[in-house]
From TrEMBL:
One of its GO terms (cellular component) is cytoplasm. The keyword ATP-binding applies. Its EC number is 6.1.1.6. This is Lysine--tRNA ligase. The gene is lysS. NCBIfam families: lysS_arch. It catalyses: tRNA(Lys) + L-lysine + ATP = L-lysyl-tRNA(Lys) + AMP + diphosphate. One of its GO terms (biological process) is lysyl-tRNA aminoacylation. A motif ('HIGH' region) lies at residues 28-36.
Length: 527
């Protein structure tokens, strides 16, 4: 069984190329989220797979930081609309904390690349223009403007103007780059007019302008010798950016277009991610609630063009159940449901793993920790005892005591607890949250039948030691059946007396997580 990343690497390996350049790029138009950073994660994974095969590989990321601002990104005020149309590189930092608008939105993303094991060479579109990297390609594009117009017109309803040039100067009057129209040139001097009413000239060597996108993309491929590039599905549409740039690359710059890896957008709770509307979720936010490998797992568990919807809310617990299962199968801590699933789990985790060759990380079940933390607080030793009493430790840890954990395992353990704390504080629905009422018995009404059930349950727990939650669960049902009490009413009585509310975590596991004497007294309503 081969993963789709391996299949891409297979096809690239078959090409007669000495060095592969895997490129990715992101427009710095606001916060970089898990949707528009897919380029980087996929490029990094492909590059890593090729390196495993002993091939020479360079993985690069180009910040499209010279593009025009088209919408004011969240959470900037509406007053920032005065910068619309200006290159990101010429816009000031919105909070005065960074050198520029670009650094403000780029920094949080670049700051977590090491956490995700992403090693890439960083490039800046702005710096490339300023340093003259594009100059030769600008000259070629201006000279071959008629041919480029003809290529564009094949995919347009309305043909471009006969004097249209594939270059946009930055207007020296209003500072905008998306409102200028270049119509003539003499050597390196481009003549233009702007919607603001200004007419002027600009020397391409100043870097105060840029090639139109599809020409720029084609030029970039040749500049870097790009052999493979992931990109969003919008560029992959028939007659879209990739199709047009591929023709320009071959016919204008004499370079074969790179191997394409299009991917589907990621939605957030069913909505399209939007930097201007504040609908997004960043790689840094992910690290607050889950390990880096879990984002890799999310991105790599299905083919890139398969629809993906992410929610950090209640369904995140289901996702973490899946991730925990796959990780434990990979490390032979648990068995997969079938031989086919076993191979699938191992292959996906192999692609998601960051530190290859490292031992099993100590990550107790995420969902269980949501309850254990609310019982024990941030007391790792107490939580460990709860995990042990509820058989929540896998075979490598089930015979260990808290004092046996290594420094690395303790760090991993604390990170997971911190993830759970952040999830509870930020995304958990109210019904998941609870607090043990330790000081006094909650004054909530019980029926006579509920009171009798609690007393019988208290006696059972006092007299017998239960090794597993399943044993206690079965014993509780025997009492309920003997009394003819509906399970819902019985469990409600437990939650009322211990939590002061009608619902809570799974009753048997919950009771085994608490101090035995406290449980017995509370069920008898004594303290």
């Amino acid at each position: 069984m081969k993963h789709w990343i391996e299949r891409i690497a297979d096809e690239l390996s078959e090409k007669n190329i000495d060095k592969h350049v895997i490129a990715s790029g992101t427009s710095i138009s606001g916060s970089i989220h898990i949707g528009n950073s897919c380029d980087v994660f996929i490029a990094s994974a492909i590059g890593r797979e090729l390196k495993k095969r002993g091939m020479e590989v360079e993985t690069i990321w180009i910040a499209d930081d010279h593009d025009p601002l088209r919408k004011v990104p969240f959470p900037l005020p509406e007053s920032y609309d005065k910068y619309l149309g200006m290159p990101y590189s010429n816009i000031p930092c919105p909070e005065g904390c960074c050198a520029s608008f670009v650094e403000h939105f780029e920094k949080p993303f670049l700051g977590v690349l090491d956490d995700y094991g992403i090693d890439i060479e960083l490039k800046s579109g702005f710096e490339m223009y300023k340093e003259g990297v594009y100059n030769e390609y600008i000259r070629t594009s201006l000279e071959k403007a008629p041919e480029i117009r003809e290529i564009f017109n094949q995919y347009r309803r309305e043909p471009l103007a006969d004097d249209w040039l594939p270059y946009n100067p930055i207007c020296e009057e209003c500072g905008r780059v998306n409102t200028t129209f270049a119509y003539d040139f003499d050597g390196d001097i481009v003549k233009y007019r702007c919607d603001c009413g200004h007419e002027g000239e600009m020397d391409i060597k100043t870097g105060n302008g840029k090639l139109t996108w599809r020409v720029e993309w084609a030029a970039r491929w040749k500049i870097f010798g790009t052999t493979c590039e992931p990109f969003g599905k919008d560029h992959a549409a028939s007659g879209g950016s990739y199709d047009v740039s591929s023709i320009i690359s071959k016919e204008i710059f004499d370079y074969e277009a790179p191997y394409p890896v299009p991917y589907e957008w990621i939605t957030l709770d069913g909505d399209a991610m939007s930097k201007s509307k504040g609908v997004f979720f960043t790689p840094a936010q992910w690290l607050e609630i889950g390990p880096a490998e879990s984002l890799n797992y999310y991105l790599f568990r299905s083919k890139p063009m398969k629809s993906k919807d992410f929610s950090p809310k209640m369904s995140f617990l289901d996702f973490m159940d899946q991730f925990d299962k796959v990780e434990k199968v990979f490390f032979n801590e648990e068995e997969a449901p079938s031989e086919k699933e076993d191979k699938k789990f191992r292959k996906i985790y192999e692609m998601a793993q960051i530190n290859e060759g490292e031992p099993l990380p100590f990550r107790p079940p995420y969902r269980f920790l949501v309850n254990a933390y609310q019982i024990a607080g941030n007391d790792l030793e107490k939580i460990f005892t709860i995990l042990k009493n509820n058989s929540q430790l896998t075979k490598s840890f089930e015979d260990k005591e808290f004092s046996d954990l290594t420094e690395t395992e303790l760090k991993q353990y604390q990170e997971r607890v911190n993830n759970v704390i952040n999830w509870l504080d930020t995304y958990a629905p109210k019904f998941v949250k609870f607090q043990v009422q330790e000081k006094s018995v909650p004054k909530l009404p019980l029926t006579d039948e509920q009171t009798t059930f609690l007393k019988d349950l208290a006696s059972l727990i006092e007299e017998k030691t239960f090794k597993t939650a399943e044993e206690l669960h079965d014993a509780m049902y025997e009492i309920l059946e003997a009394q003819g009490l509906k399970p819902q009413k019985g469990f409600q009585a437990i939650y009322k007396m211990i939590l002061g509310q009608k619902q809570g975590p799974r009753a048997a596991s919950f009771l085994l997580s608490l101090d035995k004497d406290f449980v017995v007294k509370r069920l008898r309503q004594e303290a």
